[in-house]
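Input chain follows. Return structure tokens only.
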Amino acid sequence: MKRIIYIIAATLLATSCAVKYQQPQVDVEHIIRDAEGADTTFDVAQVEWREFYKDPHLAALIDSALANNFDMKRAIARIDQASAYFKQGKSAFFPSLNANASAGYTKPDLASDQTPYFSLGATLSWEIDIWGKIRSAKRGKYETLLAQQSSKDAVQTRLISDIAKAYYTLVVLDTEKRFILETIRNREEYLSTVKSLKEAAQVTEVAVLQAEAQLLLAKTYLPDIEHAIYQSENTISLLLGVPPMEIKRGEVKSLEDIHFPMATEVGVPAGLLRNRPDVLAAEHTLKSAMEGFNTAKAAMYPSLTLTGNVSTDAAQISQWFAMPGSLLYGIFGGLTQPIFHSRALRTQKDVAWQEYQISALNFQQTVLTAGAEVSNVLSSIKTDREKVTYMTRQAIALGKAYEYSVELLINGYANYLDVLSAQEGYFNSQINLIMGLQECINNNIDLYRALGGGWK
């Protein structure tokens, strides 16, 4: 008995300091590679997505996706689950009340007759949060709720990014289709010109066949583009949570008519940690794990419980409310110290501590991953813009070369091979330019998402 008392006393004297939260150290100043000179006073992630994506057709698609997308609905359901657990954690601060009713017979000894009894009562139990166990559990559930909300925000940023990419893919495909149709018309005209030149004995049948082959080659691109448009529309429909359908978009006549979002000013790295919802979710998860450890640690210390009960005992039901004769009540206080629990409590504490360490590593990795994503996108923006500049100049030069070669052929200063070479070069340069422009569009969308834009 003395040994148990000593154990309880030693435990009461032991320090039960809870772990205080400290954000794991990450070299934030150098998290973005080659970010020197970036304007940290401006943060594109703070721009609301309606301002960033100004195309009204795209905005309508995003609104529909946010309301009907299956991933968004699942994320919202997880928030509701976490909210229910948080409400449960808050209720732990209040006493628990139980009602009871019983009936039976008693027989004090062998010589006595059986005596009926009826009892109706209530028991009130309240655990006093000495070591902060209940408070830690409540804070842990609250951090879990915040983590789920941030996870939903991360789903939203990804969804908006996917919708925007798919939408601008459609716009670019429309532009490519228009260019192919224009190419077909030009090659039909060229074929007609070559046939006229053949009649004038300026070229041979070989030139006519080559011109016809180039025309058919251009026509082979149309089925692939139509199929790509069909697939892109189905992809967007799936993101919207609706059956496959045709997607409305703005009409684009040339590359210059594509007005896509530009993230020329990035504002890094100052706002990265507070903007990225996945980073926020990782930090809330870390805080929840910390509170889980504090809860497990506090469970090893004595718990103080106050219990009160009141009941009416009577030999007949009619005597239940014969006050105060049938009334019984009591108030008790109890201190319980866990001693032998097959190491269960210590194991729970050790596991909770390791979970806290794992969450800290996950947070650091999430931050570094965010920095790597932004660094990669910034590099892609720089290189792709430079490439598109060269591609534009190349397309202009090859376009003029094609025009000049046709004029020279008509006037007898060039042969059909010169025209075919210039024609093929111009066609390929335009296709490459369209693809390069799509990469630039995707880079701007990726940068906006990588910096945490799209959920505010």
